[in-house]
Amino acid sequence: MKPQLIVRAAGALLMAAALAACSAGTDHADAHHLDNVLYRADYPSYATADELFERASVVVQGRIDSSEQVLRVVQAAPQGQALPAPVEAERREGMVVTVRTIKVARVFKGNVKPGDVVQVKQLGGKLDGVTYTEEHGVPLQKNGQYMLFLETYSDQPASLLNPVQAQYPVESGEVLRSLPGNGVNTSVTQLDKLAHR
Question: For residue 182, what are the contacts with CB-CB under 8 A and spacing of at least 6?
Fold first, then answer.
């Protein structure tokens, strides 16, 4: 078995904020000699559904399409800001993400409407024979029904605010299930009230 490459990311989800990461001195060429790459990222956490709702630019319920695309995303360097050499090297290297599409059924917040599709990226995926996995990440399931709390961008797919706290599988059309490790419970009724306050 080949060793894992550990990529450490810090900040308010570098995927969403900067798509940069710093590694333990492993370059891109070394990554192709591995079977698995493990991403470690820090995300903001939320104490209540109100906090999630306020922070999100889009809150929608819908079904994940069966198609997905795995790609490497490279973020431009922050203007006028020098990054430490390892961080700059990883910024140039980019991060592997899987982009999935949710067909929107209900909108609670944001500039979208029912019937629209929204692309959502998550860290990880299989690319060039290497499996990239996000520690504590929970991939959205094809054809699954979800309530998602998203941060949107003008030039790239949206991101979950938190890989565990910002996705709620929908059961029986109305019941929102918190993922393991997420102590924030919410409901369609609560989100509807937040949307109309």
Answer: 164, 165
Alpha-carbon distance of 3 to 149, in angstroms, equals 35
Q: Which of 72, 10, 6 is nearest to 41 (CA)?
A: 10
| In the block, residue with structure tokens 């949206």 | 158
pTM: 0.79
Q: Using CA atoms, how far apart are residues 27 and 106, in angstroms rounded to an integer?
A: 43
Phi-psi region of 57 (alpha: psi -120 to 50; beta: other; left: phi over 0): alpha
In sequence order, what DSSP letters do the residues of 29-77 get, joined into one string? HHHTT-SEEEEE------SSHHHHHHH-SEEEEEEEEEEEEEEEE-PPP
What pLDDT shows up at residue 73?
84
Report residue 190 CA to chain centroid gap.
23
Instruction: Give the single-character DSSP code of 140.
Output: P
CB-facing half-sphere around the CA of 131: CA atoms within 13 A: 7
Question: Residues 59-68: pLDDT tens digits?
Answer: 999 999 999 9
